[in-house]
Amino acid sequence: MSPHTYLPDGLPIPVPEHNRLSAPFWEGLRQGVVRVQRNPRTGLHHFPPQWIAHDDRGFDLEWVEVEPRGRIYSWTRVWHPVHPALKDACPYIVVVVELPHADGVRMLGNLLGDPRQEVPFGAEVEAVFEHHPDGEPPFSLLQWRLT
């Protein structure tokens, strides 16, 4: 693990799907911003990425930058590694973060800090961008820390 990363080496690199639906999200992370989709007709935010707006079934969703802050909606402490590269990384905390300024869309991520810390529901968190410029291809991950 390099000094500027939180997850161990050896995990699969996250890349957009072959159809590139989520590419703007991953490209945003490399730029240090969080992007989600928004329906330009209704203003409703959407995440995870999808082809069709669920509020009016339109096909022209746009990608917009949102504030990289949210609150913990749910969480779990992981004790058993789900990948061989994580065998020495447990325990760690996975959170579901709700973005209240983006219509409450939710996204997953790791909560940084003490893996045995108390995690209050509703606690405020901010994004931490973990950049891997030497990855093939280069990529960034979205992590979270309590504010």
How would you briefly describe this protein structure?
With 147 residues, the chain is mostly beta strands. It has one helix at residues 23-30, and strands at residues 34-38, 45-46, 62-66, 69-78, 92-99, 105-111, 124-132, 139-146.
Identify the notable features of this structure and list them briefly.
147 residues; mainly beta; 5-stranded mixed barrel; 3-stranded antiparallel β-sheet; 1 helix
List the helices and strands and how they pair.
Blueprint: H1 23-30, E1 34-38, E2 45-46, E3 62-66, E4 69-78, E5 92-99, E6 105-111, E7 124-132, E8 139-146
Parallel strand pairs: 6-8
Antiparallel strand pairs: 1-2, 1-3, 4-5, 4-7, 5-6, 7-8
Tell me what the structure shows.
With 147 residues, this protein is mainly β. It has one domain. Helices cover 5% and strands 37% of the residues. The protein is built from 1 helix and 8 strands. It has one helix at 23-30; strands at residues 34-38, 45-46, 62-66, 69-78, 92-99, 105-111, 124-132, 139-146. Strands 4-5-6-8-7 form a 5-stranded mixed β-barrel. Strands 2-1-3 form a 3-stranded antiparallel β-sheet. Strand 1 (34-38) and strand 2 form a beta hairpin. The longest helix has 8 residues, at 23-30. The radius of gyration is 16 Å and the shape is globular. The protein starts with 22 loop residues before the first helix and ends with a strand.
